Amino acid sequence: MEEITMKDRTLKQLLMSSSYFVLNKQIVKAIGIEAGFLLTTLIEASDGLANEDGWFYKTSPSLEEETGLSNHKQSKIIDELTKLGILEQENKGMPMKRYFRINFNKIEELVFKIQDLKNSKPSIEEIEKQGFKNFESKDLKNSNACIEKISNNKEYINNNLNKELNNNIYSEAVEYLNLKAGTKYKSSSKNTTKHIKARINDGYTLEDFKTVIDKKCSEWLNTDMEKYLCPETLFGPKFEKYLNQKIIHKNIGIPVSTQETKKIKWGE
User: Fold this and answer.
1) For residue 203, is it within any domain?
2) How far apart (Å, rounded) are the C-alpha atoms in residues 28 and 25?
3) pLDDT for the residue 31
4) A Pfam family for this UniProt protein (predicted)?
């Protein structure tokens, strides 16, 4: 056999497995290639350097020499691994050294179990359940949208209806006053609508306005108070007082209720 040359020995060393880093694909997928590279290096170091509690030290220069990762990059990756719970770090000893401990249970939990879940196929029951949830969620979303649309339309209709009813009160109340008192007030007048609106906001109805008009017309027509048969007075702050006022029949002198006033022809 030919004598093995220095060149052959060098090539042989380069081709040996000990000259290469072996990275686990699942670890790389879970935490990235650089973090996986550094973690693998620390795992190999712990195999021969860790004490009974699993602690071992590794300097930044030695890690940089083995991995090519700068001190800044190492610190960033170590912080990430620490936050994940995969790696523990403590500075201790004299002179102070950086010690590490690897949590293999956490690696299994974060890396391999997650990968198992990704690779596992859901059962028919799970698929049906998920399908029902998706349908339920979509159906509920559509239902909520429909309810919201109906609610908005209902609110729009109610607002318009209330507005129309209020406009009717303005016009009918003023027309009724003009009819009873022989006046010519306009329902479009700002001063008139202001007082009517205030009473509407208090909750009074068109019938209440007509009742007040009837009572005060029967009391003030053909008297010095006739000039006060106007919206400003009738529909003003004393509206409630006028509404609850008792009517005295001129011939009998007996107070009668509001309902009974409708049967009485005033002036008889």
Assistant:
1) yes
2) 5
3) 87
4) Phg_2220_C
